[in-house]
Amino acid sequence: MHQYLTNGLLLAACSASLAFSAQTKEEDQRPNILVIVTDDHSYQTLGTCEKDSPMPYPNFRKLADEGMVFDRSYCANSLCGPSRACIYTGRHSHMNGYLFNEHAAPFDGSQPTFPKMLQKAGYQTAIVGKWHLEAIPPNARGDMSKYESNPTGFDYWEIFPGQGNYFNPDFITPGKDGKRVVKTEPGYATELVTQKSLKWLDQRDKTKPFMLVVGHKAPHRCWCPSIQNLGRAKQYADLADPPANLEDDFANRPEFLKMTEQTLLNHFNVWSDEHLIKEVVPEDIQKMLSCPESKTLHTKYDWEMPEWVRMDPQQKEAWYNYHKARTLQLVKDIRSGKIKTKNDILLRRWRHYMEDYLGTVLSVDESIGEIMDYLKKNGLEKNTIVLYCGDQGFYMGEHGLYDKRWIFEESFRMPLIMKWPGHIKPGVRSNAMVQELDYAPTFCEVAGAATPENMSTFQGRSLTPLFKTGEHPDFKDRPLYYAFYENPGEHNAPRHDGLRTERYTLSYLWTSDEWMLFDNHKDPAQMMDVHAKPEYAETMKELKKLYRQLRKDCQVPEGFPGATGKLSVTPRWDCGTGKN
């Protein structure tokens, strides 16, 4: 009923693949594929028009004007590593085996992925920057190799260990003896990833089409702008309107929401997250500012701001001086009575958060400009399909939250822009319901690698029918499945799964045995759970039926995502048969 890839779509994809293959043999004009992935980029700060960011980003705007923006793009699991596993495999977490960060085992690199498929089809492949499919649990000791995951399907890779760092980060490359080589590089992560990506493009085998993944750490926590971009976002953060539900009290929704540990008011670390300089804050004001429920307050600045220990003396001086001035202004405003209440503190904290976050995205915007200029100057622009995405959404104070995880729209929805001159109609904003699982089959189709063997592994569908207008019957009324597994875990978000239709978001909270339903047309801010309201009884009945059918179509094992504890999953590769 709601198969992710119907037989008709599979035949169409295979036909298109044959057409692309024939063209390749005659003209060798298969497109290059450039994938730019950021970490935790919110669609509220995408910057493609006046409405989707408080700060203008000229290169995001240009990419949108020359390509297509997908306004209803969603993730399958709102967590960094699992989301990336979904992107590479085109399969849900329960099928690719990577359920949450700090997993019991790293990502299974032996399974089918689109980089492997393109590599086999004759593409030269590379990834630079964030990979993040390892499995290093907290307080791990001893041999780290059992937690490591090297990229497979890539001819060249140079990646961050784990999350990576913003300042003077480490990069890992494969050594001659099979062991990893780790080298610290001076500079700022976003700029270094850009430089290394352009260097690879210069040195690649130019007789082959390429597929390059540019993996940025930005704008991941702890939201550190480059030294040259410090303060550049302040004017925009100061003038921005806070979300109307910044002071959300979590009423009218499941009780478990009140147990979340990711609020700006009570869980945001004022030292490592807000970047206040503790030594210039009087003790009485420290108590006023502290997040009473935060589990990550520490006493030494070096520990509290993890990036501090990565900085060289010049970087430290600039960082310290800027944030010291910002901290002293906060102290002054508290002493003068300008800031009096907890809600006053919350609003200022939100502005500091916005300033740092927007400033971190600014370097990504600059990176996109450099890469697009390179493609144009080297004659690659017209025959390169560019896909920009985040790995999930992010809260910018909505519901009083930061981070992601919950099925709320700000976490579930993710940025997606695609550009391919002559193939993707420029300047279009698509309202089609799409998901990150769709990228892999799209790449295989345009690359002439949409064989039945490859396409049978995917749970997504190719986006090529949307390229002309942004709309297509195959994407109309398409329900999307979501699942989140990490509990117990950071921020105490529940294990839950659910679905998104054009109008409704339905979720079942396995951790607390609660249902949650939002009518997104009437309540776009998702402030009222209506699952138990009489007027939604019939809707709830229909959506529960759809939920059960969607779980069946997606081959979700009985009892997943479960209530508590760890689940072990063997990756399942063939979505048509359920066999690996």
Can you describe what's shown?
The chain is α/β, with parallel strands linked by helices and 580 residues long. It has a domain at 247-354. It is 30% helix and 13% strand. The chain is built from 15 helices and 16 strands. Strands 5-4-8-1-9-10-2-11 form an eight-stranded mixed sheet, sandwiched between helices. A four-stranded antiparallel sheet has the order 13-14-15-16, covered by helices on one side. A two-stranded parallel sheet has the order 3-12. α2 crosses α11 and α6 runs parallel beside α11 (342-377). The longest helix is centred in the middle third of the chain and has 36 residues, at 342-377. It is globular, with a radius of gyration of 23 Å. It starts with 6 loop residues before the first helix and ends in a 27-residue tail after the last helix.
Brief descriptors of the model:
Sulfatase_CS; 15 helices; Sulfatase N-terminal domain-containing protein; alpha/beta; Sulfatase_N; signal; 580 residues; 8-stranded mixed sheet; globular; glycoprotein
